[in-house]
């Protein structure tokens, strides 16, 4: 299923995220916008992506993150066939961390 996410509501959401200036603003916005479970699930996927890029095997990723193999597989597909979103943000985080 290929759903087009480009519409007025999603564009507004992306602009809202880009308008955030601090980690605290981001945390507050996401806590208002999402459930705790949704935030934890997104954070887990990002952690999985980082571990996959570090070439860890699924069993080690399950152990470190608690993610299901289905989640790991989905993230892995996104890394190789997606739009490079994970790689983009992880590279930027790494750049900021090394400053």
Helix content: over 70%
Outline the low-pLDDT stretches.
none
**Silhouette:** globular
Cα-atom radius of gyration: 15 Å
Distance between the termini: 40 Å
**What does the average pLDDT come to?**
95
What does this structure look like?
This protein is mostly helical. Helix 3 crosses helix 5. The longest helix has 18 residues. The chain is globular, with a radius of gyration of 15 Å. The mean pLDDT is 95.
Secondary structure layout plus pairing:
Elements: H1 8-19, H2 23-33, H3 36-53, H4 58-65, H5 69-81, H6 85-97
Helix pairs in contact: 3-5
What are the defining features of this structure?
99 residues; mainly alpha; single chain; 0% strand; globular
In short:
The protein has 99 residues and is an all-alpha fold. It has helices at 8-19, 23-33, 36-53, 58-65, 69-81, 85-97.
């Amino acid at each position: 299923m290929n759903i087009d996410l480009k519409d007025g509501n999603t564009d507004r959401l992306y602009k809202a995220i880009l308008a955030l200036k601090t980690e605290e603003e981001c945390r507050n916005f996401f806590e208002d916008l999402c459930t705790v479970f949704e935030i934890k699930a997104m954070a887990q996927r990002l952690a999985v992506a980082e571990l996959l890029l570090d070439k860890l095997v699924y069993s080690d990723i399950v152990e470190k993150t608690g993610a299901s193999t289905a989640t790991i597989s989905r993230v892995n597909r996104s890394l190789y066939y997606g739009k490079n979103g994970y790689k983009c943000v992880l590279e930027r985080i790494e750049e900021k961390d090394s400053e």
